Amino acid sequence: MKPTVFLDRDGTINEDVGYLNAVERLVFIPGALDAIRLLARAGYQIVVITNQAGVALGMIEEQVLEELHATIDARIRDAGGRVDGWFVCPHHKTASVEKFRLDCDCRKPKPGLFTQAFAALPVDTSRSFYVGDKASDMGAAKAAGLPGILVRTGYGEGELAKHKGQIPGASLVAANLAEAASRILMGQVPRA
Questions:
Q1: Cα–Cα distance between 139 and 88 in angstroms, integer?
Q2: Is the dihedral of CA 95, 99, 100, 101 positive or negative?
Q3: Distance, CA of 78 to CA of 49 (rounded, Å)
Q4: List of residues 6+ apart from 43 with CB closer than 8 A
Q5: Which of 15, 62, 104, 128 sits between 20 and 30 A of 52, alpha carbons compared?
């Protein structure tokens, strides 16, 4: 069993540009690639857990999503890191694309993507974390039994303001993924 850092995608690894529907619109948040490299070198599995309702809503083609993930994966590898698993929820209960119209158990804040990851990978949940930029990410972390780290990038700052600085499920608030990784590596993330 391995310690694992689960990461949200948009707003945590890359800039949240709305529906990221073209590789040309992909911009990494400063320090994110280095943070992933440091975590991977420290022995953590790196797993991306992401809602992608844009697929269900017809805003993002499935092949474009696959191309985006391949590009992100390649850029992370080029920076010396790796991604050990991708778990994606393409569903939405009001989807315009019928095959994705579903009130599923994998759309965050529900824990279904984590359940899939726990079944597919050797995850030591007692030494694992989830980093994301939304209250729904923190809700999913809590539902999965993991400490959640809210980053201020993406929607993070707005989420903190909306919830008056208290996001249920957030064990820690960090400026960005680089700070979150540093706090994980220094053992500074509360587990309760």
A1: 17
A2: positive
A3: 21
A4: 2, 3
A5: 128
pTM above 0.85, yes or no: yes
Sign of CA dihedral 175, 177, 182, 186: positive
Tell the residue number behind the tokens 């315009």, with chain if given. Answer: 96
8 labelled catalytic: yes
* Per-residue pLDDT tens digits for 125-176: 999 999 999 999 999 999 999 999 999 999 999 999 999 998 988 999 999 9
Q: What is the 3-state secondary structure (H, E, C) of the chain?
A: CECEEEECCECCCECCCCCCCCHHHCCECCCHHHHHHHHHHCCCEEEEEEECHHHHCCCCCHHHHHHHHHHHHHHHHHCCCCCCEEEEECCECCCCCHHHECCCCCCCCCCHHHHHHHHHCCECHHHCEEEECCHHHHHHHHHHCCCEEEECCCCHHHHHHHCCCCCCCEEEEECCHHHHHHHHHCCCCCCC
Q: Which of 10, 16, 84, 137 is catalytic?
A: 10
Residue-wise pLDDT tens digits, 30-59: 999 999 999 999 999 999 999 999 888 888
Question: Does the annotation count 10 as an active-site position?
Answer: yes
